[in-house]
Amino acid sequence: MAGTNGKADQTLDLEHELPASDERDEAASTEAQPAPGDELSKIKAERDALFDRLARLQAEFDNFRKRQAKENQDFRDYALTNAIRELLPILDSLDRALQTEPDAAEFHKGIELIDKQFHDALAKLGVEPIEARGKEFDPNLHQAIQLVDAGDVAENHVVDELQRGYRIKDRLLRPAMVTVSKK
Fold first, then answer.
1. What is the pLDDT confidence band of residue 52, given thresholds at 50, 70 and 90?
2. Residue 117 and residue 89 in contact, taking contact as beta carbons nearer than 8 Å
């Protein structure tokens, strides 16, 4: 029994020599953790940095929005510049035609040249006339003003064009006003 007691006594002595694990954790945790005041000041500094960043981002966004609004306004103000430049020579030709002595044949020839000049300018801007006369009626391109009995024209086809229609690229500017045949 003495041998057994000796082992038990040694075990007890070892337990007394080593500090308990709870005591070690508490000692380590007090050394690693900063004081509550230091942690609070770090959190406040981080919060202030985030507020500063947010304020800067909001200011940048406001500046961007204002810059975009100005650019959009400038675009609207000057978008027609190229179109007007294309049309000014036509206006000049009309002014010259009105200043000349009217000789019916030459006046008519001059007006035809101005009409061609005008259509060329529109073509440069991407505007093209809509073909209507003799074509099948298309409600997307034509506006029917009148239905007429036309024996020599197929049903639901354009007999006459009262006002020419135009489109710019794929978009309709104005439908052609037409007379449509019926049976």
1. very high
2. yes
